[in-house]
Amino acid sequence: MKTISLAKLLLLAITGTVVSGTNADPITFTDQRDRIVTLDSEAARVVTIPIPAASMFMSVDGGTEKLVGMHPLSKTAIKDQILETFYPDAMSIPSDIAGPGFNFSPNVEALLSLEPDLVFQWGHLNDDIIDPLLNAGLNVALIKIGQEAFTRRWLTMMGAVTGNEEKAAKMISWRDEVQAEIKAETDKIPAAEKPRVLYFMNYLSKLRVAGGKSYNNFYINLAGGQNAASELGMFAEVGPEQVIAWDPEVILLNGFEKKLSPKDVYDNPLFADLSAVKNRRVYKMPLGGYRWDPPNQESPLTWLWLSMVLHPERFDWDLPRRMDENYKTMYGQGVSADNVKKILRFSMNKDAANYEIFSPDKQ
Amino acid sequence: MQQTLVAGVRESRWRPALFIVLVIVLVLSALLSLAIGRFAVPVSHVAGILASALLPMEPWWTPVEARVVELIRIPRVLMAGLAGAGLAVAGSALQGIFRNPLVGPQIIGVSSGAAFGGALAILLSESRYLLIGLAFACGMLAMVIVYSISRQQGRASILMLVLAGIVTSAFFSALVSVTKFVADPDDKLPAIVFWLMGSFASASYEKVWLIAVPVIIGSAVIYLMRFQINVLSLGDEEAHALGVKVERTRWIALTAIALISSAVVAAAGVIGWVGLVIPHFARMLTGPDHKVLIPAAMLIGASYLIHVDNVARTAIAAEIPVGIITALIGAPIFGLLLRRTANKGWTSE
Predict the structure, then answer these.
(1) pLDDT tens-place string over residues B164-192
(2) Cβ(A342)–Cβ(A80) under 8 Å?
């Protein structure tokens, strides 16, 4: 079944995109390491090892039935959050296939016992986490993280292998639309009115910020800000003095450090003179179907949220409504006002400047 | 041996001058360090901020500038200076009692023991006091293990000590990996990883005290033992003959060394090469007499690490880990020093 028709190969070579047929036809696509992956038919049993891939897969397939295994840390990102409310079954999906911690080496025997049709694995780390899967004869799709284009390819691949091409295409065009919608407005903003934004990837143990090559840099620019740390590459440790020298006007706190809240920044005597602190513009990044700071299926909501955080006087998107609509599209269920408040972290952010604009009960 | 001691005595009339120079260098290094940084503070403002601590005066600087100098730069310079001084003293004493120029706190297992203690403390709680406590406890534990492995028929040979140190280091490094393996990747794991990398970026007065007390106590103990260490550096047989209780003296010194090293590890992570290179450099200036060598190494070590940290915090916007710079400078210099001091300055047998 590994043979691929010449026409498909040709199309593949030209477009580099996914080609697939109906249910019974083999599905062929190139993964993000430019390997050609062929499935006999649509995948009914899929395992995701990359942490954000599990929730993205659920959003593309609109459920958990086809996800038979995931990374233990994918599960901790779902537990107690909105996705557990939507899909309580997610908590019983096996997660002993890799880990613990940031360990992506597959437990091949546990994986084989799940009889997966396809395994998603990281392609940008070392090949030692890939070879055992290939040696076991499993179908593997390799994915990379970091750029908006990469994330769109995940959606395309996941749509293709589950027969959800249309939905995946819809999720991608949603990204295009929202990106264009915001860009049209933020392009008009003069550079001098774009606030300096600093994203802390780590704050509690060390100060680590997102530089000019990070995904965070992409959406800070899109939302009408400028990255205070754009001179750095991806993520780098900086001293408190450097933070003071940059004097960010808005500070974004990562969603990974569970205990980190804007209060930690407000109460830090070193940072008392920062514009962001004086104007109370320190925000904890929301957490919906996944953390909003790295690229994920809900990124357009991140961009909308951030554009309002940066320019409350210019933007007036109805975020709770958009969340509700798109959650219905992606997960088949909408969100209540309480859900919205939890996702947008009202408990931590409610005292921040202008945060009431996000309130679902303002009408 | 005879020759070098003679050389040391001959140089003794230059000693006051040498120490005056070293103290001036240290003071100037610290002042320079307070005046530079990523946030521009004019020198006159820095001077005013420092002077205002002693004399009441009308500020001509901004509150931000005062905060940068008082809350960020001063604790950072103090920490770097104390760490450099402590590591250099610990290294000098280790090299003396082991009569081996290749010995440093890392080689005899204290650093990896302390690293494990610290990692374990981060895993268990967020208390800095627990961190330094466990770092010291495990640093000492590593040393006791080294002692038990190497001790045969009531005494420990130098070779066995060093070998036992290597074995113990490997074991504690594995334990550090275990803590990383089981740590919660959302918050505990990055905390452990960053702490192990070492940096003065999170300097604070609280951390200055954490490092100052053990470094000062440990260094004082070592300085009080300077004559015994001199005798030990002659060799065990000679030391016995001169009436020194070799084992007891060695282990008191080792405890002081463990105290200093684990405090530095707890406050700033594992910083290599300082305890190895600075004593050699100091020995070239003073000769092998620990009475002179220990204070000289202390002053040089403090100035050295202050300058290394200047580079770490000002060269680029990102913090460069201090351990990387000390290794890049230390390893080649150590190679050169080894060649130059191969036949002089060290007690030849």
Answers:
(1) 888 999 999 999 999 988 887 767 887 88
(2) no
